[in-house]
Specification:
The complex is a heterodimer. Chain A is built from 15 helices and 10 strands. By secondary structure, chain A is an alpha/beta fold. Chain A has an 8-stranded mixed β-sheet with strand order 1-2-4-3-5-6-9-10, sandwiched between helices. A two-stranded antiparallel ribbon of chain A has the order 7-8. Chain A is globular, with a radius of gyration of 20 Å. The N and C termini of chain A lie far apart (about 60 Å). Chain B is mostly helical. The C terminus of chain B is likely disordered. The chains are: A alpha/beta, B mainly alpha. At the A-B interface, β1, α3, α5, α6 and α8 of A face α1, α2, α3, α5 and α6 of B.
């Protein structure tokens, strides 16, 4: 083939995947509940009722990214993987907060939105118990909820790359950046209302600038003739670029209560007048830790095991990064099967 | 081996070498920059940049908002504050509906649970009807008890504009804490 024609074709591919949106979140689902911007979806089961697991699973993702990373693309989707294995899967999409939502706090997410969504799940699935999987900030929310409402029927709790312990300041680059000497959170929120998506995105990418701003695109160029890599890159790029702001109230709590004062692990975090006591968390617990996570280093996720009141608890360490452990090529071989096996034996 | 063959076999090697060199260079840069962004000096520099940006932008925010507000009011057009207020009210209505939905679900559950008992009652011969068939309330107790326990929470939520009213929620919590402490002192 003519080298110029090949080059032209390659440039076309690169332009296409960098400027268009990939078809993502394709697993069939129905909207079953809404509140403000939050939406609860139920995935259409593909396994007959008698063969399905009895306890439904609710997926809760972070507040500042879209949750469809859990259902990235057909053939490479955690949701699809679970649905095919007989789980009744629900997804809570927090939506994008508008200026009117700047007062939303962890209090609202954990004591208004989550209990209501879980009640709806219990009614729809006709059960008294549920499992919840929380990822990143979603893991903070689910942990708080599980500790505040231990009798609400939460049977299994899975935490993915959960930033819960903020005591090791040396390991946490974010901690240094948001120190009160350098970062005036109130001034930022007074100006913007919500924490802008662009600032959050910059913060996450700046932790590994070369990989995120150069290496990522070189990887695409190197594999531009490999359709599989290109398709996956396209889907990931669609997700990475689709950021949303974080509600001002919740962002302030994240910085002041957690990053600066580590109140959750110290047992000093107060949500609507209730102190969050991790010892009251009794659900079966699996915490998945990414060895190479630069956003949530393992030192943030591991200590929770010693604090919770759960009898059945396990830490599972996987090689990979913050997102890679669930959306990377190794996820299907390691992380997903482990979660599925752990959950299946506890969902009867 | 012909020259052409040599060229085709050498070319990938050359490319590979270039890739290796590039990757090594990138790796060095990556390690250096990762350490750099972790440093105190980077935190300080980015903090200063943000501070300068905020200092330059913030003074214009208030006057710009006031001017916009006046213009919109003169033109009889709703402001963003009006929309925010409206959104809060819609969310409150949504929560009220959700509370009603929860109540309806509970009623439906109770009715479904009572149905078999009634059917059984109707099937009993007339003689023994005078002795009412024991409606198995005990069998429903755990679920019902839980529903009753949850109700005050839901009722409390109903009066709370949770989304726009975090301040109210906080005030309620403070009141509740006060009540608790008063009880404690008694």
């Amino acid at each position: 083939m003519d080298p110029l024609a090949t080059l032209e074709e390659q440039l076309d591919t690169v332009t296409r995947v960098m400027t268009t949106k990939a078809p993502i979140a394709q697993t069939p689902k129905e909207l079953v509940w809404t509140l403000n911007k939050a939406k609860l979806y139920r995935y259409v089961p593909v396994v007959p009722q008698p063969e399905r697991h009895r306890v439904p699973l609710l997926l809760v993702f972070a507040l500042m990214n879209r949750p469809y990373i859990l259902d990235l693309r057909p053939g490479h989707s955690f949701v699809e993987f679970l649905v095919k294995r007989g789980f009744d899967v629900y997804l809570l999409d927090w939506g994008s907060p508008g200026p009117e939502d700047k007062h939303l706090k962890f209090d609202d997410y954990t004591l208004e939105y989550m209990p209501r969504a879980i009640r709806k799940i219990k009614v729809l699935s006709d059960v008294e118990e549920v499992s919840v999987l929380g990822w990143c900030i979603g893991a903070i929310l689910t942990t708080i909820y599980a500790a505040l409402r231990p009798d609400d029927g939460l049977r299994n709790l899975i935490l993915l790359t959960a930033p819960l312990d903020f005591s090791n300041k040396e390991q946490l680059t974010f901690s240094r950046w948001v120190d009160e000497k350098y970062f005036d959170v109130d001034k930022v929120l007074a100006l913007f209302g919500n924490m802008p998506a662009e600032m959050i995105d910059y913060g996450a990418k700046a932790l590994k600038p070369v990989e995120n701003y150069v290496g990522n695109y070189l990887k695409l160029w190197d594999n531009v003739d490999n359709p599989n890599v290109v398709t996956n890159w396209h889907a990931m790029n669609t997700w990475v670029r689709d950021n949303i702001p974080m509600a001002g109230g919740a962002f302030r709590q994240l910085i002041v209560d957690l990053y600066r004062n580590d109140r959750l692990m110290k047992g000093e975090l107060v949500i609507r007048g209730e102190r969050v006591d991790l010892g009251r968390l009794r659900a079966n617990l699996l915490t998945v830790i990414a060895d190479g996570d630069h956003i949530t280093p393992p030192c943030q996720s591991e200590p929770v095991l010693a604090k919770v009141g759960s009898r059945d608890k396990e830490a599972y360490r996987v090689r990979g990064g913050h997102i890679g452990i669930m959306a990377g090529s190794g996820a299907e071989k390691h992380t997903w099967p482990h979660i599925e096996q752990w959950l299946a034996s506890r969902s009867k | 081996m012909s020259d052409a063959d040599a060229k085709t076999t050498n070319q990938p090697d050359l490319m590979e070498k270039m890739h290796e060199l590039r990757d090594a260079y990138m790796d060095t840069w990556s390690k250096y920059l990762v350490e750099e962004v972790k440093s105190e000096s980077y935190a300080q520099a980015s903090g200063t940049a943000l501070k300068n940006f905020l200092n330059a932008t913030a003074p214009f925010k208030e006057p710009a908002e006031q001017a916009m507000l006046r213009t919109l009011q003169q033109l009889n057009i709703p402001t963003s504050a009006d929309f925010a207020g409206l959104a809060g009210r819609v969310t409150n209505i949504e929560m009220q509906l959700d509370n009603m939905d929860a109540k309806l679900d509970r009623i439906e559950k109770l009715l479904t649970a009572a149905q078999p008992a009634r059917t059984a009652e109707a099937a009993i011969p007339a003689k023994s009807v005078s002795q009412p068939a024991p409606v198995k309330q005990t069998s429903r107790k755990p679920a019902e008890a839980r529903a009753v326990v949850q109700e005050p929470v839901a009722r409390k939520n109903r009066s709370k504009p949770a989304v726009r009213g975090s301040a109210i929620a906080r005030a309620t919590a403070v009141k509740a804490a006060g009540r608790k402490s008063r009880k404690g002192t008694k």
